Amino acid sequence: MHPVIEVSGVRKTYVKTVAVEEATFKVNQGEIFGLIGPNGAGKTTTMECVEGIRKPDCGTIAVLGLDPFRQVYELQDRIGVQLQLAQLQKRIKVWEAVDLWASLYRRKAVDGKRLLEQLGLADKQGAWFMNLSGGQKQRLFIALALINDPELVFLDELTTGLDPQARHAIWDLVRGIRERGKTVFLTTHLMEEAERLCDRVAIMEHGRIIDIDTPDSLVRRHCPERTVVLDADDPAAGDHFRTIPEVESVTCANMRFTIRGRGDDLVTEVIHCLSENRIRVTGFRTVIPNLEDVFLKLTGRSIRE
Amino acid sequence: MMLRGLWKLTWIEMKVFLREPLGAFGTIVVPVLIFVVLGRVANLKFGAPSFTARGITGADLPVLVALLISVSAVLSLVTIISIYREGGILKRLRATPLRPQTILGAHVIVKLLLTAATLGLMFLAGKRYFPPGANVPWFSFTIALLISTWSVLSIGFVIASIVPTARFAQPIGAVVLYPMIAFSGLFVHISDLPRVLRAVAHVLPLTYAVRLLEGIWNGDGWVAHLGDVAALAVLFLLFTAISARVFRWE
To answer: Is residue A267 part of a domain?
Structure first.
């Protein structure tokens, strides 16, 4: 695995505000890398610097071995880009847009018709852009980002405005890109999307990257807390649970026990304890923190604020 | 490499423009209508063969309408560019291997083609006003108008760079462009203008466009107007250089 994107010490200021304070990260060949954070965290600015459509104030960026600002056309030829909040000409037809985009790249374009079919736009080929729904527009932009069979695909908030069904279809498509050995760099403020889709994520807030790792490792590192909630009819069960070394607290209300502790072994230990003591359980669930909790812990606020 | 996508983009921009009925009507039909209406008024006033006479009914009406065609093409460009910028269309087009000059060049070609087409309609509509056998230098006149329009389009890009939002594009463009016709020497001789306005008139392409168009209409050769063509070219370079500095893509 070698990096296809290397970003080091990038900073970008607009007239008054600092959009990106400091960004350093690498994206490896063949992975889905997500930049996650709330709106206004600097995700899009960072991505646009990497795409070569924005020039950072300082820092270095290498994408596919190219300088994205000086060699922007060479780079554009090899990447696919889906921008956030983009539009096309109101009265351009879907097939015209695909046909135009297909003609812009040096390498042979993929079959536009098939791509539109995959994205569920086959029956919309003759429709004007302005008459497409939000989700259809989004899917068209994804088609345009994939038309040149790019080595590296940039997706900025790719499922914003899509219904859950369309979202899952797009996720499958993105996984498909990875399976063909391509690299995906995406931004999202949806933690579920990052958790399900990304191999590695970088958490960004206030223009800084706070941490980078796989979703699982981030959760393990920052939120080792595990909770087991179970219903048992044995009043003495609480004392048994307290003997487990990983357990930090046990509370009981109406025979529902909430067992809090740390580490991945907690759940196993609780199950072990239950069977050893022959405790009858009528309900059992585990509460495992997710990226949302990691974000809350790292930044002190919810990503949805 | 630079031309990659130019023709396809031009063709698409042309189709997209014509699909908007109001835009096409305003830029193509309105100038021709003005020509027909004013032509009728002039005919009633001065009698049938007035178009061959000098003065307001000679070169002035065709030149005035030609300028209107040119200015409305430029105004349409200003509006389209500002809408494209505001909607993120320019940004989307830039995130491809398209060169910036290809994106803007496609619009210039569309506007020039429309200018030529509108002028052609004007000639057709005006046919019955011209006495039979009148020697109308329509080909040279069209070339002269295209050169003029090309030069004024560079001001259009400067205006398109300055307008804050698409909403203001049309009014601001009109406020800047239409008065230029007033100072162009068509209504008042440049030498009769106050000193300040005279200086302004000399850096406006329409001044040279009027001199060129009037001359060509009246049968002058191109050699007599090389100076005007050169001035239009210089002003084009000047305003293009300015817009290259101030143009905003988003």
So the answer is: yes
Residues A163, A276 share a domain? no
Q: Are residues A156 and A270 in the same domain?
A: no
Q: Is B88 within 8 Å of A86 when comparing Cβ atoms?
A: yes
Which chain A residue has the Cα nearest residue B20?
A91
Residues A29-78 have pLDDT tens digits of 999 999 999 888 999 999 999 999 999 999 999 999 999 999 999 999 99
Higher pLDDT: B80 or B57? It is B80
B89 close contact with A: CB closer than 8 A: yes
Mean pLDDT over residues A251-263, rounded?
92
Name the residue among A83, A91, A100 with its Cβ closest to that of B19: A91
Instruction: Please indicate, yes or no, if residue A25 is contained in any of the structural domains.
Output: yes
DSSP one-letter code for A263: S
**Average pLDDT for A78-100:** 94
Considering the domain architecture, whether residues A191 and A264 belong to the same structural domain is answered as no
Which of A54, A63, A121 is closest to A93 using CA atoms?
Answer: A121
Which two tokens mark A164?
């859950």
Q: What is the CATH number of the domain that holds A242?
A: 3.30.70.100
Which helix H or strand E contains B112, and what residues bound it? helix B100-126
- Structural domain total, chain A: 2
Token pair belonging to B167:
């909403």
Inter-chain residue contact B97 with A96, CB threshold 8 Å: no
| Predicted TM-score of the model (pTM) | 0.87
Predicted confidence (pLDDT) at residue A87 exceeds the cutoff of 90: yes
C-beta atoms of A90 and B88 within 8 A: no
- Name the DSSP letter for residue A278: T
- Domain holding A126, by residue range, is 3-220
Q: Are residues A191 and A243 in the same domain?
A: no
Q: Which residues contact B160 (CB under 8 A, 6 or more apart)?
A: B77, B78, B81, B82, B85, B169, B243, B247
ipTM: 0.86
Last residue in a domain, options A203, A220, A237: A220
Confidence at residue B43, expressed as pLDDT on a 0 to 100 scale:
66
Candidates A51, A90, A100; nearest CB to B95: A51
